[in-house]
Write a structure and sequence with these properties.
mainly alpha
Length: 103
């Protein structure tokens, strides 16, 4: 059998029709996405994240947790009063100059 020419191949290609798609395939591919609810995606869905971004995000979250956890709570001491307050008798300001200052 000799190979077909380009014209013969073009003629055959115009006559060819793709086979019909079976309904079972259509429902498997398209129906699965339609059946899922958005709430179900929140419970069982997944999002693809690059590994370096995931590691960086986890490190930042751990750092924030450590900073919040170790921050001392500053509650005002209720026992302090102004009873022991004494004003300064004489103010003696002292000017401290920087070594980088232009004179």
């Amino acid at each position: 059998m000799e190979p077909l020419t380009d014209l013969e191949l073009d003629h055959l290609l115009r006559q060819w029709e793709a086979p019909a798609v079976p309904e079972s395939l259509n429902s498997k591919v398209l129906g699965a996405r339609e059946r899922r609810s958005r709430w179900r995606f929140l419970l069982t869905g997944s999002i693809r994240v690059p590994v370096p971004l995931g590691i960086a995000t986890a490190a930042v979250l751990m750092l924030l947790i450590l900073l919040v956890w170790n921050t001392p709570s500053e509650q005002p001491n209720r026992s302090e009063t102004l009873r022991d307050f004494k004003p300064i008798r004489q103010l003696e300001p002292r000017i401290i100059r920087s070594t980088y200052e232009i004179r």
